[in-house]
């Protein structure tokens, strides 16, 4: 295969991976919004546990069909990942409850510089000036779009701090584990999803009762709410898988930067389907700034020196050949 055809194939698969993540992420946001706002199923942590139950079932079926090959992930690394992931889920829910929407959005934006810091410290990544400026432009644009009232209190700040750092560490660890142990996205999900499902289903009802003062077992289920619940769990399989694919192919920083495209799309879909209330000049301006920043980041980080390692390589543990069309073995130096 010639270098140009290989590059074209990689670009096509990269686009497919991003589109997969965007479609499933935006879809699950819309479905969950209907499930919670319309039908009153406000048990977010338990719902996430159910998402990982269906994801676990998917990995079991794929393993039975032979699409997932045997692999190894040390228990210590598995437990650290699950700890970060569960703190991320609970922390985000608590942060949303205890903080204003404006401060919650600022906390989400701060994940990008935190992810950059993790890459600089642990992976010895060096960013060019253009790459740094493009990240700042994305942050500015999304902030203009989403940040309104900003108020903070001590417990809200603590919750946001825990949520931001645990989320950044969880996303960094996805890329780290895939590279170190040569794990595909399917394999990594096969290791992590069952533990997350079990721990969140045990923890979720208590956390949700603490947050909402409602019991999940007392919820009045009907046909419509069950259909939306099943739909949410089905889409979550794609959301969980696409997150691992994208972070594995790129990095947590790129996933965060381009992931804000989902924020823009959700805003635009909200205006289309739920009316133009809230659509004003500064929101449109913020969208345009954010999109320009994302395009600039993609261009700047892909140039030589835009984002590169400084004489550093991560030791790998040999594993069987990867088992997904969206997997590739050359993820170490991608933007």
Automatic annotation (TrEMBL):
Family matches, as Pfam families: TPT
Membrane-spanning residues: 12-31, 43-66, 78-96, 133-150, 156-174, 186-206, 226-245, 257-275, 281-300
Cell compartments where the protein resides: Membrane
UniProt region (Disordered), positions on chain: 302-335
Keywords: Membrane, Transmembrane, Transmembrane helix
Membrane topology reported for the UniProt record: Multi-pass membrane protein
Main location as per UniProt: membrane
GO CC terms in record: membrane
Keyword Transmembrane attributed: yes
Residues covered by the Sugar phosphate transporter domain: 23-297
Biased composition, class Basic and acidic residues, residue ranges: 320-335
Keyword Coiled coil found: no
Name of the molecule in the record: Sugar phosphate transporter domain-containing protein
Species this chain originates from: Cynara cardunculus var. scolymus
């Amino acid at each position: 295969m010639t270098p140009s055809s290989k590059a074209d194939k990689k670009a096509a698969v990269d686009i497919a991976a991003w589109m997969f993540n965007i479609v499933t992420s935006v879809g699950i946001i819309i479905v969950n919004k209907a499930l919670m706002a319309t039908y009153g199923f406000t048990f977010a942590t338990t719902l996430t546990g159910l998402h990982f139950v269906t994801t676990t079932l998917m990995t079991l079926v794929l393993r039975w069909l032979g699409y997932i090959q045997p692999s190894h992930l040390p228990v210590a690394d598995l437990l650290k990942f699950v700890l970060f992931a569960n703190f991320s889920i609970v922390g985000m829910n608590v942060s949303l409850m205890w903080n204003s929407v404006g401060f919650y959005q600022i906390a989400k934006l701060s994940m990008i510089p935190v992810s950059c810091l993790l890459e600089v410290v642990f992976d010895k990544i060096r960013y060019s000036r253009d790459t740094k400026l493009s990240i700042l432009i994305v942050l500015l644009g999304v902030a203009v779009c989403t940040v309104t009232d900003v108020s903070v209190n001590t417990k809200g700040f603590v919750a946001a701090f825990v949520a931001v750092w645990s989320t950044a560490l969880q996303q960094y660890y996805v890329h780290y584990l895939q590279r170190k142990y040569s794990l595909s996205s399917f394999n990594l999900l096969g290791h992590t999803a069952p533990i997350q499902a079990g721990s969140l289903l045990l923890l979720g009802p208590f956390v949700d009762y603490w947050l909402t003062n409602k019991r999940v077992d007392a919820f009045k289920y009907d046909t419509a709410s069950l259909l939306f619940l099943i739909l949410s769990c089905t889409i979550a399989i794609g959301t969980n898988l696409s997150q691992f694919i994208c972070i594995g192919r790129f990095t947590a920083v790129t996933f965060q930067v381009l992931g804000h495209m989902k924020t823009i799309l959700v805003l635009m879909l909200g205006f289309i389907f739920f009316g133009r209330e809230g659509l004003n000049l500064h929101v449109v301006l913020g969208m345009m700034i954010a999109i320009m920043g994302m395009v600039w980041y993609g261009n700047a980080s892909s140039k030589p020196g835009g984002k590169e390692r400084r004489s550093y390589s991560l030791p790998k543990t040999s594993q069987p050949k990867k088992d997904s069309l969206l997997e590739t073995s050359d993820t170490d130096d991608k933007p």
